[in-house]
Amino acid sequence: MNPIPAARVLIPEDDRRQILARIDDALQSGALTLGKTGEAFETAFAGIVGSRFGVAVQSGTSALEIILRSFGVEGREVIVPTNTFFATPAAVIHAGGRPRFADVDTATLALTVESVAATVRPETAAVVLVHIGGIVSSQTPKIAAFCREHQLVLIEDAAHAHGSTLAGRMAGTFGAAAAFSFYPTKVVTAGEGGMIVTDDETIHRQALQFRDQGKEGFLTNFHVRLGYNWRLSELHAAVGLTQLGRLEEFVAERRRVAHAYTRRLAGVAGVEPVMPAADSRPNFYKYVVLLDRGVDRLALKRALKERFQVSLSGEVYETPCHRQPVFQPWAAGAFPVAEDVCSRHVCLPIYPGMTEAEIDHVVVALQTTLSGRTTPCVSA
């Protein structure tokens, strides 16, 4: 068995030719940023999500910060789950707000309406709901209703959730706006990049201004906001637009692998997959399993790598934000569920094209290592 990577970026030969043709067109035209390929990428992505507007930017982080700036969170608090990537609370701080961490649910690794309600204060302006691993929690409609009732802005950090749905509704359409990421490991990539989606015309207009140094228009030098250079180049858009054409295929492949894992892990002691609700259809950006308490995660990962050449994907996330040194000024509170799930989960390799033999090898390696055996089990 060849080494099994944690993730694999797939850009088929036909797609590479298409990307190169789009890049060549941009190079010939001289329109290297905010051109027709970027516009096509925005239109296509918004159409897939089901939003009126899409705004392409240079990262998922900047997408989130632009949304927060557009909603005017400066001087106010924004609720975020503590088991999220650095970028979520950092975007709040960069937008002038104060992150207020909240606990999550073991079943979905996401906020619950109860954890949001327990965290809201008079100075709360917004809630950022993170779809960890591509799972849209069944609590999402309840959180959206709570936010409407309490006049809070709901923002989706959908960096993991391209093509994920809940009850047939796409991630990115439950809140006032959503941020997606096209980092290399994501379900579809642009190399680097992000996308804002919204139905709000005012937010759309402000996002266009913020991403281009706060200018009223691309061809003017009339600055109406304190923006930044958050533009996405045509070269990145060429990759992203081509990858987007594979979204349905890539998600179907990830679901195939995930379902195979779920079947094979049913008889494996020591692990419990994080499973979506019946009406939630994740893209399985990550396949997350909880280890039994007491399992040494670092030793497990090392053994899988050294003995079986199986690399596990990065956790989501191993250190909650309230324990990160940079966020200590905002770390007040107790977060027992987040601390528990952060400390004892791993993410199994998952990518389009993963073979049944590779899936078997991962499960057998995991079972063998957890059982303390020195030789592999017969099958899993």
Describe the structure concisely.
By secondary structure, the protein is of the alpha/beta class. Helices cover 38% and strands 14% of the residues.
What labels describe this entry?
alpha/beta, 14% strand, seven-stranded mixed sheet, Aspartate Aminotransferase, domain 2, Aspartate Aminotransferase, domain 1, 380 residues
Supply the CATH class of the largest domain.
Alpha Beta
Which CATH architecture of the largest domain?
3-Layer(aba) Sandwich
Percentage of residues in strands: 5-15%
Tell me the overall shape.
globular
Runs in which pLDDT lies below 50 for 5 or more consecutive residues are none
Placed side by side, the strands forming the largest sheet appear as 1-9-8-5-4-2-3
Overall mean confidence score, pLDDT: 96
Helical residue percent band = 25-40%
- What is the assigned CATH homologous superfamily of the largest domain? Type I PLP-dependent aspartate aminotransferase-like (Major domain)
The total tally of domains equals 2
Largest sheet: 7 strands, mixed
CA-based gyration radius: 21 Å
Count of strand segments: 13
Distance from N terminus to C terminus (CA atoms, Å) equals 16 Å
Given the structure, what is the number of helices?
12
Give the SSE order as H and E letters. Answer: HHEHEHEHEHEEEEEHHHEEEHHEH
